[in-house]
């Protein structure tokens, strides 16, 4: 019997995502995260999804060889961008390598924010919806970067 070789492409290497369930407004959550993690998430133009719903978008780029962070709203009064289980309001995306100890430290700090009901690591292998969202976020970030260069 001939064995077939299968190529698995992972377009989003070195990404960790923390799902956050909270009633806190986006700007307050960003403020708490900035304070606790000593970063500077900045609000940019909202992401508009395929259903024409707007979701808040924050970015912090630590520079070359450092982490880049996004805080992206995926549920608001207008609707949900995508349904996660458990119900998730925000994704805190960490790009570039982060060791497990630092990741768990950041997750623990987010869990301690007053008003955060749940913070958890999103399993990228079993969550089929995440690739589409990450593509949309990446395209949004490219649009922001091209506008900044003008």
In helices, the fraction of residues equals 25-40%
Task: Please indicate the percent range of residues in DSSP E strands (runs of 2 or more).
Answer: 25-35%
Oligomer: single chain
Biggest sheet features: 6 strands, antiparallel
CATH architecture: 2-Layer Sandwich
CATH topology term: TATA-Binding Protein
Specify the CATH class.
Answer: Alpha Beta
Order of helices and strands: EHEEEEEEHEH
- Rounded Rg: 16 Å
Give the averaged pLDDT, no decimals: 89
Widest sheet, order of strands: 2-3-4-7-1-8
Shape: globular
Question: How far do the termini sit from each other?
Answer: 58 Å
Q: How many DSSP E strands?
A: 8
The SS-based structural class is alpha+beta
Question: How are the elements arranged and paired?
Answer:
Blueprint: E1 15-22, H1 26-37, E2 42-48, E3 54-61, E4 68-73, E5 75-76, E6 79-80, E7 90-95, H2 100-111, E8 116-121, H3 130-149
Antiparallel strand pairs: 1-7, 1-8, 2-3, 3-4, 4-7, 5-6
Structure notes:
By secondary structure, this protein is of the alpha+beta class. It has a single domain, classed as 2-Layer Sandwich (TATA-Binding Protein), CATH 3.30.310. 29% of the residues lie in helices and 30% in strands. It is built from 3 helices and 8 strands; from the N terminus they run βαββββββαβα. A 6-stranded antiparallel sheet has the order 2-3-4-7-1-8, sandwiched between helices. Strands 5-6 form a two-stranded antiparallel ribbon. A hairpin with a 6-residue loop joins strand 3 and strand 4.
């Amino acid at each position: 019997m001939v064995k077939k070789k299968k190529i698995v492409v992972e377009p989003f290497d070195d990404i960790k995502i923390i799902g956050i369930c909270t009633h806190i407004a986006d700007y307050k959550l960003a403020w708490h995260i900035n304070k606790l993690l000593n970063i500077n998430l900045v609000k940019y133009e909202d992401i508009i999804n395929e259903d024409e719903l707007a979701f808040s978008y924050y970015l912090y780029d630590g520079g070359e060889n450092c982490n880049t962070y996004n805080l992206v709203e995926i549920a608001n009064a207008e609707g949900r961008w995508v349904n996660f289980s458990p119900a998730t309001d925000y994704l805190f995306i960490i790009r570039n390598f982060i060791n497990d100890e630092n990741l768990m430290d950041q997750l623990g700090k987010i869990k301690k924010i007053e008003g955060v009901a749940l913070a958890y690591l999103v399993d990228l292998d079993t969550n089929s919806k995440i690739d589409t969202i990450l593509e949309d976020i990446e395209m949004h970030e490219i649009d922001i970067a091209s506008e900044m260069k003008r």
